[in-house]
Amino acid sequence: MFGFAEASENIKIVSLSGSIYAEYCSNVCHPPATVRFELRDTSGGIIFKGQTFFEKNGEYSIPGLIAGETYTIEINDSSYLRMTLNIAIPFTDKYNELSRDFLVTPKKIGAELFFEVSPFKYKTSKLKEGFNTFNDRITELIRQNPDINFEISCFPENDIDEDYNQTITLERCRTLKEYFVKKGIDSSRLTENPNSKTDPMFPPTESKGPKGRRYTGSTYLIIK
Fold this sequence. Notes:
CATH architecture of the largest domain: 2-Layer Sandwich
CATH superfamily of the largest domain: OmpA-like domain
Number of helices: 2
Order of helices and strands: EEEEEEEEEHEHEE
Radius of gyration: 20 Å
Shape: elongated
Helix content: 10-25%
Strand content: 25-35%
Number of domains: 2
């Protein structure tokens, strides 16, 4: 049905498996996703179609991949945001089995995309160095779903001064919006939601973390 490689002396075959989870409730829980997906080769041709199921822990399995090649997994299911994920198969001198899990975001008003790595430096609205490296998945989700609008929601580090918190989180919202606009996102798709209180889902901890890992307030994109 599809063009998988056959094992030979010169072609080394790799299989890829894992689970696809739905991004609900920020990063608190990720239930298995029932979702359809396609695998494409470098020419853009579809070489595999599959579907995962909640009842089977969202598991998928793709056989017959060629070591050293790059493939694209494309989520094109009406229930989820469209997403493409590049999979680079490493070189190997024998048959190998790889495993990779990933998240898909429900196409649902109010669904939240949580920035697992804070975009901001401590108590400022300045983006961290390397911000795009850690959060390029979110940028690509915005780009690949031009029919969806998002709300940028930022929370402060503490509850000491609500007026200051409102100011700094508004600046953070605007900084992120400016970043996405520079990446080619239409500004009309992005609204701002600053917060004067800390995130009730992820409040600050009493213990101090190491430098560089201090609590800097939560950041979300919310589907509008």
